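Inverse folding, one chain.
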């Protein structure tokens, strides 16, 4: 019997039960099955949002979107999607991203070990189980970079519903879940989507510091602080103050969500804060880290994928927002960093903090700096300082509207 004919007829209910039981034993908290039919409506929504510019930094061409929304392009003869959700909730207080000081908030999904690796291993173990138990079947693992619309698959499989903040919400664990799927040629009994929604709540829309959330969970990535911490290149000027002390990601539309106030505690220590990460990190030591330190500290986490300079850039911006004079010395040192991206943001940050030492260092930088963009940042910082009362951190009332909103 060939692969297609062996897997085309629906498997008995006991087969699905065995797969679900195995998945739970491997550590997946929620498991549901969806059909592998194309995500037609979602593909249209995806393209509309792309055309509106919401994914500007992700460069999604039609072939990528189509590969994500049409499972059979990735796995010919795919019949079902085994969808999983794994809680990463840890009962630990998050760091206030608007607080002053030298600590930079890390978003809760990045506190622990890199989920791509941890969950990727579990997915492979589940795929091995299915392929061994159901001879002739094939599986394809999808986690983040896999060809799948993770959230839409979770909703179709009945383990979550679309939240107004763009995330999907589960009944037991709220939105603090990682999603991952196995696409399979096995035909399994699909689950029914949940009949739940957010009702009249609009808390996340009101609390988003940059107003990035539009109707039906459409998040404008250009304004989303999570996206801004993960983008390549210079962070647009108009959003730097709104970032507060965020080093990586943003949780505001989740911490305010009432569904997340009643989630079950997770039993996944691998996603609890690593000792050297915690819920917030010392920003000067991130700004001035060596490559070896970067690999050791960030290598095991989900924060490493954009590289060292992006984290240093974020640390520089966060220190600029720290309202803490102890930030000046490390920022002055960062003006000598090898990467223009780091030098330019350190210059911006010194312009925010002000004072004679910051001014002198910016003037020195201009004497030798060869990169035009870094020079522009330094000149702009000096102009801001020229309009500032001598010796001190900028008056808090002079911030942009975005900044003031993020501090409320
Ligand atoms: C790129 C990406 C981002 C970008 C998103 C850019 C943007 N403008 O949205 C950025 C960096 C901003 C981001 C941020 C975050 N992300 Co992210 N991200 C991804 C990634 C890799 C691709 C998502 C993507 O671009 N999808 C395309 C868009 C169009 O799809 P979508 O948002 O899922 O929406 C589709 C469907 O859900 C559906 N849909 C949505 N709403 C509605 C409503 C209706 C009525 C209907 C019919 C359909 C529908 O249609 C859409 C089109 O297909 C996914 C992994 C993956 N492969 O899916 C993780 C993923 C979505 N991210 C995840 C997480 C955890 C986060 C953060 C919470 C991290 C953080 N704390 O900083 C934030 C949340 C921000 C937010 N409010 O959405 C989780 C989501 C978990 C969850 N519970 O939903 C995922 C699934 C990763 C994972 N494997 O667990 N992310
Ligand atoms: S992650 Fe932050 S900036 Fe992005 S939509 Fe949520 S609250 Fe807004
Ligand atoms: S805050 Fe309210 S509207 Fe937003 S996702 Fe949570 S329940 Fe839904």
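Residues assigned per position:
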């Amino acid at each position: 019997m060939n692969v297609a004919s062996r897997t085309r007829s629906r498997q008995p209910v006991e087969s699905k039960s065995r797969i679900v039981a195995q998945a739970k034993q491997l550590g997946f908290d929620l498991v549901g099955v969806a059909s592998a039919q194309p995500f037609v409506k979602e593909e249209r929504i995806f393209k509309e949002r792309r055309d509106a510019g919401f994914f500007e930094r992700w460069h999604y061409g039609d072939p990528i979107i189509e590969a994500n929304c049409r499972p059979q392009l990735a796995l010919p003869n795919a019949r079902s999607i085994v969808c999983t959700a794994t809680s990463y909730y840890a009962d630990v207080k998050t760091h206030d991203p608007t607080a002053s000081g030298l600590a930079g908030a890390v978003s809760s999904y990045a506190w622990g070990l890199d989920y791509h690796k941890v969950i990727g291993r579990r997915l492979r173990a589940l795929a091995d189980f299915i392929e061994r138990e159901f001879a002739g079947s094939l599986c394809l693992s999808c986690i983040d970079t896999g060809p799948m619309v993770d959230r839409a698959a979770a909703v179709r499989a009945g383990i979550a519903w679309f939240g107004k903040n763009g995330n999907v919400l589960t009944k037991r664990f709220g939105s603090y879940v990682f999603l991952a799927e196995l696409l399979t040629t096995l035909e399994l009994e699909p689950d029914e989507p949940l009949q739940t929604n957010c009702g009249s709540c609009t808390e996340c829309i009101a609390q988003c510091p940059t107003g990035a959330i539009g109707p039906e969970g459409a998040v404008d990535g250009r304004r989303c602080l999570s996206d801004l911490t993960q983008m390549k290149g210079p962070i647009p000027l108009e959003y730097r103050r709104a970032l507060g002390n965020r080093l990586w990601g943003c949780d505001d539309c989740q911490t305010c969500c009432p569904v997340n106030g009643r989630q079950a505690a997770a039993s996944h220590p691998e996603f609890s804060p690593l000792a050297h990460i915690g819920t917030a990190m010392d920003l000067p030591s991130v700004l001035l880290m060596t490559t070896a330190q970067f690999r050791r500290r960030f290598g095991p986490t989900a924060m490493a994928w954009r590289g060292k300079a992006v984290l240093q850039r974020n640390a520089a911006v966060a220190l600029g927002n720290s309202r803490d004079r102890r930030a000046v010395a490390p920022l002055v040192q960062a003006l000598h960093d090898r990467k223009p991206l780091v030098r330019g943001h350190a210059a911006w940050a010194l312009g925010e903090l002000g004072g004679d030492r910051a001014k002198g260092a910016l003037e020195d930088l201009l004497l030798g700096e060869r990169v035009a963009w870094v020079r522009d940042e330094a000149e702009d910082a000096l102009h801001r300082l020229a309009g500032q009362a001598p010796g001190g951190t900028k008056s808090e009332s002079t911030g942009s509207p975005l900044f003031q909103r993020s501090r409320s």
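DSSP finds 19 helices and nine strands in the chain. Residues 165, 208-210, 212-213, 219, 224-226, 250, 252-253 surround iron/sulfur cluster (ligand 2) (CB under 6 Å).
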